[in-house]
């Protein structure tokens, strides 16, 4: 029988699970597929793209500094996020004279969610370049977080003449998961996405991103992601999410880091253990995946002119969890 102290702790935990999660979920207003009722921190513009026999709108923000230094930074979001989470980063970059471009990739944020689309990092890189071409921007520093790190790498490989600098913040794709994880059909990814809700999203982020810590900044992005699950539009959002999981799994960039020509900064939270498909392998294999301290060092060795900045005690989102430790080396690198 549990002692009174542990019984009280158990009851408190149980009440939290029973009431906190549902209450939070009920307080999250449902959002449609393009987040029409969610306000981004800066004005949103749209570029019309004609892709794969359909017309799609791609959203982006263009923050221009009051005192320009003549340089532009392109910020590329991760899979479970949108361009809005770059708010503080963009504000500080702008204060230092940088123009900041923040796109929502097709399938994410305020951009369209097509019913039928073949996702490739090459296609996303072309879409991103189309925004820069429209704005007559010919040179950028490219910063990618998580999935955005894979896209940033692909962009730098496809457009080396445009890529002044490359910054990878806890990028995924530093290893080839296909070597360890069985292939999961898109329909299976879709089935799993349809079962998402606020409680599951929060638990995943608690375990995978923040090591059990939680605050309002973390909750903001979990709640936004969960807002789709409350909407009639969620099936198409979930389908696009499944398609992009397949893209991430089947299109590694790990074999091409040696070809990156741009001066590169790796900002790596050392507590991160993110790896696609970990739940589908035995525990012994799982322990070998997502070892960011080792992967960061290995990647820095592969990329010519790479600098590694390890951040101890920080997980997958340094620019959310430990902002000062993120922005300080970023600004120093961009201003060199």
UniProtKB/TrEMBL annotation:
Residues 1-25 form the signal peptide. Residues 72-232 form the AB hydrolase-1 domain. It comes from the Bacteria. Pfam families: Abhydrolase_1 (PF00561). GO terms for cellular component: membrane. Keywords: Signal. One of its GO terms (molecular function) is monoacylglycerol lipase activity. GO terms for biological process: acylglycerol catabolic process. SUPFAM superfamilies: alpha/beta-Hydrolases. Gene3D superfamilies: alpha/beta hydrolase. InterPro entries: AB_hydrolase_1 (IPR000073), AB_hydrolase_fold (IPR029058), AB_hydrolase_sf (IPR050266), Epox_hydrolase-like (IPR000639). This is Pimeloyl-ACP methyl ester carboxylesterase.
